[in-house]
TrEMBL record:
Signal peptide location: 1-27
Active site: 409 (nucleophile)
GO molecular function, one term: leukotriene C4 gamma-glutamyl transferase activity
Subunit structure: This enzyme consists of two polypeptide chains, which are synthesized in precursor form from a single polypeptide.
Pathway note: Sulfur metabolism; glutathione metabolism
UniProt keyword annotations, A-Z: Acyltransferase, Glutathione biosynthesis, Hydrolase, Signal, Transferase, Zymogen
Post-translational modification: Cleaved by autocatalysis into a large and a small subunit.
Gene Ontology annotations of biological process type: glutathione biosynthetic process; glutathione catabolic process
Family per similarity comment: Belongs to the gamma-glutamyltransferase family.
Alphabetized PANTHER family for the sequence: GLUTATHIONE HYDROLASE (PTHR43199), GLUTATHIONE HYDROLASE PROENZYME (PTHR43199:SF1)
Protein name: Glutathione hydrolase proenzyme
Residues engaged in binding L-glutamate: 109, 451, 475-476, 497
Reaction(s) catalysed by this chain's protein: an N-terminal (5-L-glutamyl)-[peptide] + an alpha-amino acid = 5-L-glutamyl amino acid + an N-terminal L-alpha-aminoacyl-[peptide]; glutathione + H2O = L-cysteinylglycine + L-glutamate; an S-substituted glutathione + H2O = an S-substituted L-cysteinylglycine + L-glutamate
Length: 612
């Protein structure tokens, strides 16, 4: 084991996690049905998983509000989506309070250990360490923020106790969930990483094999962890025996016999004990008469989605052909990403010009660079958000490379009968995180510190996302809430690393400018403009729009799928629409407390006019 100043620990036996049938299943157990669209009253929940959606709906039926149901659904996702989320990670929580008509946010982003330095990810020659080697190591593990986020959300907005909202997750971990093809595939894709660590092999490769589709996967150790938090509160995660187990697992990951050594981590007891999940002011831009709220730095989601919308505000997309509307979307996304990479980081460590990035004047200056007949050469340089703007200046900023981000993460959207909304994106970063399971605790630790920029490329310009003690790495998570004159209209978000930003942006453009209903806007084929020389795009997008956009100068790389969004929209007449992916990541799950229409939706306008 390669590690810095740590002590080897004895391997702790792990008995959690079993496939009930013990190997291949001759008669597969059917997985819960997934419905990507639901319409009704009494509140709604949309997640990637039917069990998590059911847990959230149960809390709403028992009188809980949107915050209560969001935490409950998140805990359930920690069971059924353990490779994307869980108490070993972090996230960002947006909340709309119907009584005060205000949007608040909680920053549950992981923090770097106090021992981290700007050169932590460099070798003795000053070169960046291999990215994959850092991911599957304790060196990538930041201080988890999810437990503090849950408690903060309940304290600030909820009506139930942590004990009450964890009941569904505990029950699910005890009884187990049905393994579907997506869970098996994600396990297979991470098999090499998982086999590196003894505890992870024991839990997620029961009997040394991939879990069979249709079998039941149980995690009694995670149920015990949840029971501990329910009984003693989240302080039990940040101090005491559980905290010591987390630190030991990060500092001294226990490799399987014969596995290659991995880096030990820098996380300490003091890092856990000192963690906070602060509230931050939400970002806001006005788009087509709507108020669009997002997450402020250290997330780049709110600033980048907001800047791109401000740029697109200068054009009437609704009067354009599909090709030209999408051309403007692609160009605005690239411009906003150039500025994101150059200026956004943890505001406690770098001066983020957030007000200028989200100003209409800066957006007008940047929009001048969009040629309606031709794509700009990529990557485009960043703008200069200095408060002094000209009609169409020459580009003067630097071109800054983007740091690598994992494509995992999960998002859930909840609304209650009173009109409160929770839009919550949570993650352990890469699919399968660091691969390190905390012995006897049933959850994987994050690899969020790989979201830092490993090495400064341009020494003449500040790099806002270098590692530092206690710093929060830049994120792309973009939970979003849209209001109309203070009244809720829709909320959404997505997983997908830096493609989160473009997924949210494209879905909003689809819904507001291209007059798709929310389910159609989420299902529509995607492309992700992140200021690279070529745009990654789904095959269906290329089939529908590739020829026309290539004629305008865009270049594409095909990619199987982008994002996995969920959303909720408030319809006229007191109805609420919940939508999730119909296909991506195996399809999502949307539900309402009272389904008033069932499959019959004739005569109902699912895309009421939103834009002014």
């Amino acid at each position: 084991m390669r590690h810095r100043g740590t002590t080897l620990l004895a391997l702790v036996g792990l008995t959690a996690g079993a496939v009930a049938t013990g190997g291949p299943v001759s008669a597969a157990v059917p997985a819960p049905a997934k419905a990507p669209l639901a319409i009704g009253t009494g509140g709604a929940v949309a997640t990637v998983d039917p069990d998590a959606t059911a847990v959230g709906l149960d809390v709403l039926r028992r009188g809980g509000n949107a915050a209560d149901a969001a935490v409950a659904a998140a805990a359930a996702l920690g069971v059924t989506e353990p490779y994307s989320a869980g108490v070993g990670g972090g996230g960002f929580f947006l909340y709309y309070d119907a009584e005060t008509r205000t949007v608040s946010t909680i920053d549950g982003r992981e923090t770097a250990p106090q021992a981290m330095r700007a050169d932590t990810f460099l070798d003795e020659q000053g070169d960046a360490l291999p990215f994959d080697a850092v991911v599957r190591s304790g060196l990538s593990v930041g201080t988890p923020g999810t437990p503090r986020t849950w408690q903060r959300a309940l304290d600030e907005f909820g009506t139930m106790s942590l004990r009450q909202v964890l009941r569904g997750g505990i029950r699910l971990a005890d009884k187990g969930f049905v393994v579907d093809e997506t869970f098996r595939q994600q396990t297979a894709e991470n098999e090499e990483k998982f086999r590196t660590f003894a505890e992870t092999t024991e839990l997620f490769l029961p009997g040394g094999e991939l879990p069979e589709v249709g079998s039941v996967f149980r995690n009694p150790d995670l149920a015990s962890t949840y029971r501990l938090l329910a009984r003693r509160g989240v302080d039990a995660f940040y101090t005491g025996p559980l905290a010591r187990d987390v630190v030991a697992a990060a500092q001294d990951p226990q490799e399987s016999p014969g596995a290659a050594e991995v880096f030990g981590g820098l996380l300490t007891d003091a890092d856990l004990a000192g963690y906070t999940a602060p509230t931050r002011e939400a970002t806001r831009v006005d788009y087509r008469g709507l108020e669009v709220y997002g997450m402020a730095p250290p997330s780049s989601g709110g600033s980048t989605v907001g800047e791109a919308l401000n740029i697109l505000e200068q054009f009437r997309l609704s009067s354009m052909s599909d090709a030209h509307a999408l051309h403007h979307y692609l160009e605005a996304g690239a411009l906003a990403f150039a500025d994101r990479n150059a200026y956004v980081g943890d505001p406690a460590y770098t001066q983020v010009p957030l007000r200028q990035l989200l100003s209409e004047e800066f957006a007008r200056e940047r929009s001048c660079l969009i040629d309606p007949a031709r794509a700009a050469a990529k990557p485009v340089p960043a703008g200069v958000p200095d408060g002094t703007y000209e009609p169409c200046p020459a580009a003067a900023g630097a071109t800054v490379a983007e740091a690598e981000e994992g494509l995992s993460t999960t998002h859930l959207t909840v609304a209650d009968a009173e009109g409160n909304i929770a839009s919550y994106t949570l993650t352990i970063e890469a699919t399968g995180g660091s691969g390190i399971t905390v012995p006897g605790r049933g959850f994987i630790l994050n690899n969020e510190l790989t979201d830092f920029t490993f090495k400064q490329v341009d020494l003449t310009r500040p790099e806002p996302n270098l590692p530092a003690p206690g710093k929060r790495p830049r994120s792309s998570m973009a939970p979003t809430i849209v209001l109309d004159d203070g009244e809720p209209r829709l909320a959404m978000g997505s997983p997908g690393g830096s493609t989160i930003i473009t997924t949210v942006l494209q879905t909003l453009v689809n819904r507001v400018d291209r007059n798709m209903n929310l389910a159609e806007a989420i299902a529509a084929p995607r492309a992700t403009p992140r200021n690279g020389a070529r745009v990654n795009a789904e095959p269906a997008f290329l089939e529908a729009h590739g020829e026309a956009l290539t004629a305008l100068g865009h270049e594409f790389n095909p990619t199987p799928e982008i994002g996995a969004a969920t959303g909720i929209e408030f319809l006229p007449g007191g109805l609420v629409l919940a939508a999730a992916e119909p296909e991506r990541r195996g399809g999502g799950s949307a539900g309402v407390v009272h389904d008033v229409l069932g499959p019959r939706r004739d005569g109902l306008d699912l895309a009421p006019q939103l834009a002014d």
